[in-house]
């Protein structure tokens, strides 16, 4: 196919907007020349302004509507909340903004490819170049990991080689049309990129702020990737490397009741990223994350009763990870009370829970039990109040699965855990209450998502289909409600 080369104006616009970023004589060309220029590209585009796909939370069992809020306000996310086939419009008939991960992820991939192609010629020390390369490989892997898990079926060793994944781009050239690589090909790319990121970070010998990933961050994401593949041995290997590098330290909530969770003194935080300003407002006592708030300030969606019931007796996360506003529990993980830094984190508790699940599925129950207890004892008031934790078999696996839900609620992981599980697959019911503009309840609708439902796979955005007539759309189904009139 004919190839054309894409000028990365988004990078260059970024460069020209940064104070003292380029010498005056360079601004007409707007070309990055030093290692610091490339570092700032990665820092701003991948770690400051970037947002992960937090919107998947609306489709999980962790979110439910606020029944008495008007339908017009709730309609902004209703089609996502009810798993509708088409996500281009919201339920008010307006253009929706809920299927942006494709565009954002491929933008980041393009930036990473540009950095990889040009960093060798940049002015600067070799160890600084190594670090920038590590960031580029890590972010490309992170982007493909989100894309393939959102827009393709879950990895299955028996079908991954033939199941369509997402398009694979490794340079700054683009083809007129392109097709989807298989799920296996994309997972192989993620694995290779993360291993290269680890190598480059290690070669650099540099340690930067928590806004920058490092070798341990790449190892953690690699352990998650192996977990999703059911590659238990490699999951255990890389999770153990993370734990050993950190000394196995976790943040004990009993000793840190006040203040934020995400901060520079928390030893389990490996990396934080994502602009939280558009998600959380001022973060005060009555603040609501903006995606759960209407234009009038009313809460539209909040924490589900089902999730609240899973928290353990004396579980300090219940008060740290959420709060009650106007009688409705809402997430706090993006508010100023929870984080001094980014909206999302990579942290050591995940290494313990990744390894616990892998141990459990290898029937290494004692090791699995020890890992999950390590997390729990750092999150509860008193282990004696928790009661007996299953020490083996299916119930231990269930406890670990539920512990992932408690620990990582509202961080974008629950949707993928629900999608990938076979042992704990469940039907999710979402209730939507029809409320008119005067506040009168007109009726209710119940929508259902079955295990292995085709709507677990996001639709490829229409904008992409408009310019690429050979790419294969995902098959989804219309969701019709069971209605109850008042």
Describe it for me?
- With 486 residues, the chain is of the alpha+beta class.
- Helix content is 41%, strand content 10%.
- The protein has 18 helices and eleven strands.
- It has helices at residues 9-17, 35-48, 71-74, 78-81, 101-118, 126-151, 183-204, 215-228, 232-246, 277-280, 305-310, 317-320, 348-361, 365-376, 383-386, 393-407, 414-420, 462-467, and strands at residues 3-5, 63-65, 173-175, 269-273, 301-303, 322-325, 328-331, 344-347, 428-435, 441-449, 482-485.
- Strands 9-10-11 form a three-stranded antiparallel beta sheet, with no helix packed on it. The chain has a two-stranded antiparallel sheet with strand order 1-3.
- Strand 9 and strand 10 form a beta hairpin.
- The longest helix is centred in the first third of the chain and has 26 residues, at 126-151.
- 44% of the residues are buried.
Characteristics of this structure?
41% helix, alpha+beta, three-stranded antiparallel β-sheet, two-stranded antiparallel ribbon, disordered N terminus, 486 residues
Termini gap: 59 Å
Number of strands: 11
Q: Regions with pLDDT < 50 over 5+ consecutive residues?
A: 1-29
The share of residues in extended strands comes to 5-15%
| SSE order | EHHEHHHHEHHHEHEHHEEEHHHHHEEHE
Anisotropy-based shape: globular
Given the helix and strand composition, which structural class is it? alpha+beta
Total helical segments: 18
Radius of gyration: 23 Å
Order of strands, main sheet, comes to: 9-10-11
Binned, the helix content reads: 40-55%
- Biggest beta sheet summary: 3 strands, antiparallel
Mean pLDDT: 90
């Amino acid at each position: 196919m004919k190839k054309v080369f894409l000028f990365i104006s988004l990078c260059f616009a970024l460069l020209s907007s940064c104070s003292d970023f380029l010498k005056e004589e360079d601004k007409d060309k707007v070309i990055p020349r030093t290692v610091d220029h490339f570092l700032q590209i990665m820092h701003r585009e991948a770690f400051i302004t970037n947002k992960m796909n937090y919107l998947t939370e609306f489709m999980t069992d962790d979110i439910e509507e606020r029944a008495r809020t008007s339908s017009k306000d709730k309609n902004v996310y209703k089609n996502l909340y009810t798993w509708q086939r088409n996500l281009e419009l919201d339920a008010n008939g307006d253009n929706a903004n809920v299927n942006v991960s494709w565009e954002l992820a491929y933008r980041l991939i393009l930036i990473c490819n540009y950095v990889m192609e040009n960093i060798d010629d940049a002015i600067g020390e070799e160890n600084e170049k190594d670090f920038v390369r590590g960031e580029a490989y890590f972010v490309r892997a992170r982007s493909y990991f989100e894309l393939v898990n959102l827009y393709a079926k879950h990895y299955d060793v028996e079908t991954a080689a033939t199941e369509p994944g997402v398009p694979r781009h490794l340079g700054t050239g683009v083809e007129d049309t392109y097709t989807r690589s298989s799920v296996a090909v994309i997972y192989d790319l993620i694995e290779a990129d993360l291993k290269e990121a680890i190598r480059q970070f290690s070669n650099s010998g540099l340690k930067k702020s928590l806004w920058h990933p490092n070798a341990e961050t790449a190892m953690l994401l690699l352990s998650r990737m192996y977990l999703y593949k059911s590659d238990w041995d490699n999951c255990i290997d890389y999770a153990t490397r993370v734990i050993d590098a950190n000394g196995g330290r976790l943040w004990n909530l009993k000793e840190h009741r006040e203040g934020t969770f995400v901060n520079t003194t928390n030893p389990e935080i490996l990396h934080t990223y994502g602009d939280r300003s558009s998600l959380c407002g001022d973060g005060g006592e009555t603040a609501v994350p903006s995606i759960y708030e209407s234009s009038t300030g009313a809460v539209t969606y909040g924490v589900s009763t089902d999730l609240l019931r899973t928290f353990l007796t004396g579980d300090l996360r219940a008060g740290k990870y959420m709060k009650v506003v106007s009688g409705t529990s809402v997430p706090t993980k993006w508010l100023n009370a929870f984080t001094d830094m980014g909206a999302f984190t990579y942290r050591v508790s995940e290494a313990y829970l990744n390894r616990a699940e892998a141990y459990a599925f290898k029937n290494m129950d004692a090791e699995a039990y020890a890992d999950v207890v390590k997390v729990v004892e750092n999150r509860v008031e008193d282990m004696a109040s928790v009661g007996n934790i299953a020490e083996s078999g299916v119930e231990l696996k269930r406890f670990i699965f539920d512990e992932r839900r408690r620990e990582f609620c509202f961080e974008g992981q629950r949707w993928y855990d629900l999608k990938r599980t076979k042992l704990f697959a469940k039907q999710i019911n979402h209730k939507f209450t029809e409320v008119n503009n005067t506040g009168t309840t007109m009726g209710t609708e119940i929508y259902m998502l079955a295990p292995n439902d085709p709507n677990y796979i996001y639709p490829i955005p229409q904008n992409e289909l408009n310019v690429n007539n050979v790419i294969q759309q995902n098959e989804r189904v219309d969701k019709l409600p069971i209605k109850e009139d008042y």
